[in-house]
Amino acid sequence: MDTYEPPLYELSSPGKHGANLPALDVPKSPLPDALLRQDNLADFPELSEPEVIRHYTRISQRNFCIDTGMYPLGSCTMKYNPKVHEEAARIPGFGAAHPLQDESLSQGALQLMFELQNYLGEISGFDAVSLQPAAGAQGEFTGILVFRAYHLSRGEGERNEVLVPDAAHGTNPATAAMAGFKVIEIKSDARGNVDIDDLKSKLSPRTAGMMLTNPNTLGLFEEQIVEVSRLVHEAGGLMYGDGANFNAILGICKPGQVGFDFMHYNLHKTFTTPHGGGGPGSGAVGCTAALAPFLPGPRVRQKDDGSYEFFTPKQSVGRMKVFHGNFGMLVRAWTYIRTLGPDGLREVSETAVLNANYVRVKLDDIYPPAVDRICMHESVLKGQIAGAKGVRTLDIAKRLIDYNFHPPTVYFPLLVPEALMIEPTETETKRNMDRFIDAMRQIAHEAVENPDLLHEAPTTAPVRRLDEVRAARQPILRYNAEAFAKLREG
Amino acid sequence: MSFKTPPDLRYSKSHEWVRVDGDAVVIGITDYAQDALGDVVYVELPQVGATYGPGDTFGVIESVKASSDLYAPVAGEVVAVNDALESDQAPINSDPYNGGWLIRIKPSGAEEELLDAGAYAAFVESLQH
What we know:
The complex is a heterodimer. By secondary structure, chain A is of the alpha/beta class. Chain A has three domains: 8-62, no CATH class; 85-339, Type I PLP-dependent aspartate aminotransferase-like (Major domain) (Aspartate Aminotransferase, domain 2, 3-Layer(aba) Sandwich); 349-471, Aspartate Aminotransferase, domain 1 (Alpha-Beta Complex), CATH 3.90.1150. Chain A is built from 15 helices and twelve strands. Chain A has helices at residues 8-11, 49-62, 83-89, 92-95, 107-124, 136-153, 171-178, 196-202, 225-234, 327-363, 393-402, 430-449, 452-455, 468-473, 481-489; strands at residues 128-130, 161-165, 182-186, 207-213, 238-243, 262-265, 285-287, 299-302, 308-311, 379-382, 409-410, 419-422. In chain A, strands 1-7-6-5-4-2-3 form a seven-stranded mixed sheet, with helices on both faces. A three-stranded antiparallel sheet of chain A has the order 10-12-11, covered by helices on one side. Chain A starts with 7 loop residues before the first helix and ends with a helix. The relative contact order of chain A is 0.13. By secondary structure, chain B is an alpha+beta fold. Chain B has one domain (13-127): CATH 2.40.50.100. In chain B, strand 6 and strand 7 (67-71) form a beta hairpin.
């Protein structure tokens, strides 16, 4: 079956069009020459509306998404996104609000932001929240800029090192380096925690802070988090909490109470706003009272008369984004929190942890766990199947596509060989998880009996195994008729 | 799984190999390292003339799986880099001990703890369990 979907360029023919412009009702005025494209729009595709609709609808039907199947992509928390959130985000007062309209005309939107700031602060045990950052990595960057501003305000500008565990998300060291800090790596111990001796040996008067994800990227709760925080604070450093895995501890553990000074929330993961298509996300941040003066604005506060207004703290590190963060995501997160309430949020985490452990225990006799411990919301297994020669985690992941599951995260964290990171999330039923477990066990059986089934996978998807190496070595970054034709010839 | 560990080389625990060649040393990544990384798609190497201490990061190697730092097993000044890898990284996987060499260093004396072939093979074996 030829499953090639021609790009719009190849569907084009001169004179077709899908839009009918209304009659001109103002004097004709040509654009200045400098603004006109000089190539006469030679490559511009011309198509009818149904062609365009069918093209994009066909492509969308090839997508694997949370609305069509289980998506156990560890670290990414691909939980189901309730449809009522979409309804709330489309209420005209929210959906049609203009970010430049006057505060007095936006009181409902400001109230929602104010309440969301308070809810996020309460859930995490922090005094102040800014909803500005557009996603987790921007939240991290905000946090490290705030650390720098805090140390500078105290005359401790010599603090130029940020400690990052070897299990960290790659964004942590990237953030610290981008903010001008030196990154110091801290080892993990045999139980998957921060190695306390290694941490002690790397703390110094140059320590600006530590970036830590808890639960960490092995899906394990940092058992010595209070001790780690104490040591970093004693050295004069601050604790940054990467909230990527906050999903696992809602209503159970408040990061602000175990020693974190600052954290970001992935509203698009923990608070179930849609993601996976490249955004938009939301990386709201929370912090202690000591760091609040440096938060990015505008934040929202309530005036004495009960109305709401924007303000920016005096020592703010500045804006992280135009306007007011990804506002539509804020509406969805607010709706999620209000729908579930405190008990419901706790149940989210309890169920997420229970589900992850269920899958882990049902698979760990054939896929060895990275660390043999009860896990939190995700588990890291190794794609090292006994007796399977030449089969790697990548092959297992590709074969899962043939069983109609999105593959788990693979080869992360980097310190685990052949890692398979599985996060079922709280929104999968036992029946679905059992189907996934059966598929994983069947694949392990195939890996021994008939490894070619894995090496050739996927066989049922619209495209077969993609040549990732060639894509990385010889990328074709925009449409090019000649290059496409050559690829099609094979 | 067993990996090639030529007897005439010395090895770092971060999986670089070192070959003495006259008054210089040649450095690359081991067979184990290339296998663990998977197909290499990009390598960032230093300029000739750069100097490194033992264990310093001298470049970055990127595969379809991950991006990793390269560590100088021996301190010294870079006297040559394998420019051919800029356009074709395949030798790092197919021929890590010859065509896949990365840099040539004029050593200044200091070096990381280096293992002989037998000790390195045992070290790699221990990592797989």
